[in-house]
Amino acid sequence: MGNKQIKQHLETAQKTGILKISLQRLQEFPPQLKAYPNVLKTLDLSENRFERVPDELGNLTLLKHLNLSGNRLVELNEVVGELAKLEVLLLMDNLLTKLPKTLANCSHLKTVNLSNNQLKEFPTMLCGLKQLDVLDLSRNRITEVPSEVGGLYVTELNLNQNQISSLAEDVANCPKLKTLRLEENCLQAVAFTPRILKDSKICNLAVDGNLFNSKQFTDLDGYDVYMERYTAVRKKMF
Predict the structure, then answer these.
(1) CA–CA separation, 223 and 226 (whole Å)
(2) What residue ranges are annotated as transmembrane (predicted)?
(3) From 2, 43, 85, 206, which residue has the greatest number of CB atoms within 10 Å?
């Protein structure tokens, strides 16, 4: 896609509100976007070679869908917090080591995908976002799930393939959490306390590939209560 094609895309996007410039090996944010009118609702810049996001992104305050996956981002510009209408944020397959606290301002976020990055800490700034439904943190380097997790409103939390050895009991407080994926981590069976198994709303707990066998898991205090929830949901599905 040469400059002429990008120009055509930008002109069309002014009418449609949708701009897709992916798979172009771009190392720099398209300069035309820096002074672009605030009309975009969907911006797809996936599968390029960006290492950073410019401040001008914060001017696109109507954005609902932002796809920056498959780039080389090491950190995310805090201006993302100015995208108050953002509902979908796709950042998988980057090199992110941390996230800006300003993401807490994106109160309309529904889906956040951060799979396959270099995050070492759980992004607690996403706790408290009441619209957030799905959070994918799989394939990172997170070592613990902190107590703030109890403020997450998601129905699904994916933490597969991290390095988690500590799970805060507060996960039982998540008001909507139904599916918790913790496969291929470093957890002992005792991490799943009676409170998590008995008092949470979790009805789909994926725990294969940790430091315990299935018998150790099924022998846990509260496992029967968890299985009642699991079975009840299965009956509703069929």
Answers:
(1) 5
(2) none
(3) 43
